[in-house]
């Protein structure tokens, strides 16, 4: 059956009304904020306390990283995400950029100053975003009531990997780190040492969600089977090590997920986050 033009137009208008209604229900707002001499784009939605602020992994937009849970969180409380340089509507990556976790933590601090409507916030740190959540909290403990770490990086993981892998496998891993630095100004290596110098409050509630399936995509970089095993074994070791971050740290395993837990098992993310909020 072929829809005539007036009918098709009516259907499109109806769909727009539905989408607008959903957006209004979550009070979505978007804009930009300045940090130093550059602008970063952001989106916030929902109402309530404590506010939730999201920190994405390396090399992916916050919008894509949290797409599976963002609006669901907005139905419970106010939630905000921002895009790092080179992503979304944020400024492009300038030549020679060299950002570590301390720089990203500064961006988060400014963002929270501008957008938080609650006295304390809950941080969600996904992969490298976990570094940022921990660094910010250690330096601003009065602003954070809890942290959710989603398959988050650990400061000893890469160093141990470098010492354990073959030279050839580590060269391939170093190539990945170099790509992030050369294209995004993202200095992972120095960031791990900055995080290692921080300490979280003993009574801070931290929840960890770790992947249950091995990470396989590094095979595309040509890492050997032995190297992939080292990569995943050390990942599991240091996920468990994060249980010592505070006296109130707990861990759950996303049994059916690789690294992209938010996409594959969003219900686990929402359960842990909502319990942390409550």
From TrEMBL:
Name the record gives this protein: AB hydrolase-1 domain-containing protein
InterPro entries in the cross-refs: AB_hydrolase_1, AB_hydrolase_fold, AB_hydrolase_sf
Domain AB hydrolase-1: 69-170
Signal sequence range: 1-23
Keyword Endoplasmic reticulum part of the UniProt annotation: no
UniProt keyword annotations, A-Z: Signal
Pfam families: Abhydrolase_1
SUPFAM superfamilies reported in the protein's UniProt record: alpha/beta-Hydrolases (SSF53474)
Domain of life the protein comes from: Bacteria
PANTHER family hit by this protein: MONOACYLGLYCEROL LIPASE (PTHR43798)
């Amino acid at each position: 059956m072929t829809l005539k033009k007036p009918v098709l137009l009516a259907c499109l208008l109806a769909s727009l009304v539905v989408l607008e209604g959903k957006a209004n229900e979550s009070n979505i707002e978007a804009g930009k904020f300045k940090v130093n001499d550059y602008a970063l784009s952001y989106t916030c939605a929902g109402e309530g306390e404590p506010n939730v602020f999201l920190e994405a992994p390396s090399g992916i937009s916050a919008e894509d990283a949290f797409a599976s849970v963002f609006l669901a969180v907005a139905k419970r409380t106010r939630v905000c995400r921002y895009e790092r340089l080179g992503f979304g509507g944020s400024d492009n990556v300038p030549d020679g950029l060299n950002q570590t976790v301390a720089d990203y933590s500064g961006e988060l601090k400014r963002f929270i100053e501008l957008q938080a409507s609650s006295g304390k916030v809950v941080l969600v740190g996904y992969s490298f975003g976990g570094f940022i959540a921990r660094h910010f909290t250690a330096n601003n403990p009065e602003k954070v009531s809890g942290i959710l770490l989603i398959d988050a990086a650990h400061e000893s993981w890469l160093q141990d990997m470098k010492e354990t892998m073959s030279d050839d496998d580590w060269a391939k891993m170093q190539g990945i780190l170099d790509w992030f630095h050369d294209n995004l100004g993202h200095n992972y290596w120095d960031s791990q040492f900055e995080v290692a110098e921080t300490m979280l409050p003993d009574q801070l509630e931290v929840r960890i969600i770790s992947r249950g399936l091995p990470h396989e995509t590094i095979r595309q970089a040509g890492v050997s089977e032995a190297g992939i095993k080292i990569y995943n074994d050390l990942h599991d070791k240091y996920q468990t090590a994060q249980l010592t971050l505070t006296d109130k740290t707990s861990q759950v395993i996303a049994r059916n997920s690789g690294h992209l837990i938010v996409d594959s098992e969003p219900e686990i993310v929402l359960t842990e986050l909502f319990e942390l909020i409550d």
